[in-house]
Design brief:
The protein is of the alpha/beta class and about 180 residues long. The chain contains five helices and nine strands; from the N terminus they run βββααβαβαββββα. The chain is globular.
Length: about 180
């Protein structure tokens, strides 16, 4: 279970056209935003990918590195990036399903009959990771809709970084 203020698992993943991403080496001055997207079959993910690429300069100004990852194979991730029209955004692929669920707490879905979905895939998640590789916030979803907008994430990061706001949800003691 991921807990704000505690270390997140290591993440080293191949990307579409940007080599290997390593969370320990490729983090921003003020941290890293890792966005898990569902895959090529998800039009909402493709739209989100375009929106995130359009906001890369805002994230860079905040000192936050961004990567979008999925459990899709390399060829499907490349097609997703092409459909989204992205070239600057790091798009990671081939996250093992076991790591998605066990390390990152993501929900795993099975393909709907007659759909273009892969047999198994991870549902969306957003993880903002502090420079010390501790989790600041996590958001996981069981459906493709209802995810935070890119502008909300940018605004939240501006507030967080500007006011030294602490991570919330850190209490793990008795209830």
């Amino acid at each position: 279970m991921l807990i704000p203020g505690k270390p997140v698992p290591a993440l080293k993943i191949d990307t579409v056209g940007h080599g290997t991403f390593d969370l320990d080496a490729d983090n921003g001055e003020n941290g890293t935003l890792v966005i898990q997207y569902r895959g090529l079959h998800c039009p909402i993910c493709i739209r989100q990918m375009s929106e995130v690429e359009a906001a890369l300069d805002e994230f860079a100004a905040l000192g936050v590195e961004v990567i979008m990852i999925s459990t899709d194979r390399a060829d499907r991730a490349a097609e997703t990036a092409q459909k989204a029209g992205v070239s600057r955004l790091r798009v990671g692929h081939s996250l093992p399903l076991a790591a998605a669920r066990e390390d990152w707490g993501l929900n795993i879905s099975t393909a709907r009959e007659g759909s273009a979905e892969p047999a198994l895939f991870a549902e969306p998640g957003h993880f903002y990771i502090a420079p010390d590789r501790s989790l600041y916030f996590a958001w996981q979803q069981t459906t493709p809709f209802g995810r935070p907008s890119t502008s909300d994430i940018v605004g939240g990061l501006k507030f967080t970084l500007g006011s030294n706001y602490p991570p919330r949800g850190t209490y793990t003691g008795p209830l």
